[in-house]
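Structural prep section.
Before we set up the soaks we want a predicted structure of the protein with zinc ion in place, mainly to decide which crystallisation condition to try first. Input record follows.
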Amino acid sequence: MTEKKKINSLGVTISNHIDLIIENRDLITPELLDSLRNLSNYCLDSSFTVSQKKRNTKNTLIDRLKYFVQHTIEKSLISFSEIGLIEELDFKEKKPIYPINYAKESEALIFSYNYFINEENWVIEKWNTHKNNNEIISNLKNIEKTYNKIEKLFSNPDKKINILIEELNLLYILTIDIYNYISIYNSNKNKKISSTIINVCEYCFRICNTGKTCKIHKTYNSEKMEEYLNGRNLFLESSDDFKNFHNIYKTFRELTYDNNISLMSNYGIDDDFGPEAKKIHTNEVFHRMVINIKKRIWNNDLKKIFQHDFLRLFPNIYHLIEPNFSCSVSFDHFIELSYQEKSLNNIYDTSKHPFWFLYALTIADYLENESKKIEQKKNEIAARDVRYFGKKKTMTYKQIVDSEIEEGFLFLKEGETRKGKESNIKKIIKKMHNELTSSLKL
Ligand SMILES: [Zn+2]
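Run finished without errors. Recording the tokens verbatim:
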């Protein structure tokens, strides 16, 4: 058994995001790449914390982000002086630079340098809220402005310039995304924007009406207790891969309640979204389907394609959504019908984003399959008990064990004895007798 670490969902999201953004960045220096990989690993560590120092944390996320931002801007300014856009600068004392003497190309970057070297601008109160704080965004936009200008300035850029552009681009995208993650996560936590908050059930794909579990997995009345326990056990016993998949779904959905997402996969990148859109890595199949849904008309041809795909991808729950194909007039309508009580019973989910729908179907299908397996196991146990009970009428316990082995129902694993098996059967039959007597008394 590996030791279970307490992993923070915000940390997982940021780590996934960093991995995604640095993928295939051939131009950035190995040093920067290493430091970003370290940052990503730190986000998955049990000592991860945004700003509060824990006993075993040397640097918090904010400390590490500060180092990344300051260091990358300094490095870029050094490149600026090397290509003759500014004089050589001394960064040792972290003093503000007066941009008045410098060319337009470097002005915006100097503004952002002056902002980000100021310790006061790294207090957590500035980073965990979107309220009244346009300073961070505008200073990050200065970085974006800078590389756009450089790109225009050099029509035939050499490798050095390309590295400069790439690193500034990375700095801008990563910092603005991490800032968004921290601030949205914090607002969700504090319920300051309750009207837009959504919570994904801890044990399934459904959106909760209130609290942390959906109405199916709530415990508020005893009739539901069994469903609650079944749902919880099903989830807790699922594979780590599934739990990770569910965690990504839960985190991203809760962070992107406004559906402002763009997808990346081997199939391509959705690039018609603003920088605020959360980039999500997915597989080619889902990406292709989302693009198909968005670009094509929901007619019989497309319905046929999706009937085929959904049956193949979600065989365990397909029967629940199948009737909705023929009566839907659009894909939005199809989702709406599929979330109704008689289909997937996810009535509080108002998103019509096909990507979230595919994710929900994946989770629903997996859980249904697991539940079928458990049901099958239960039936096998019930059949076994009935068999033992029948045999007991004419056989001794020793004979039952012999016949079970002979018929291929029972195997002695290493360390198991016939005596042990006999006593198990004895217990089962005793339990069945008790149940029988108590049911006769009723
Ligand atoms: Zn649930």
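Observations: The chain has three domains: 9-194, 198-367, 395-441.
Flagged for discussion at group meeting.
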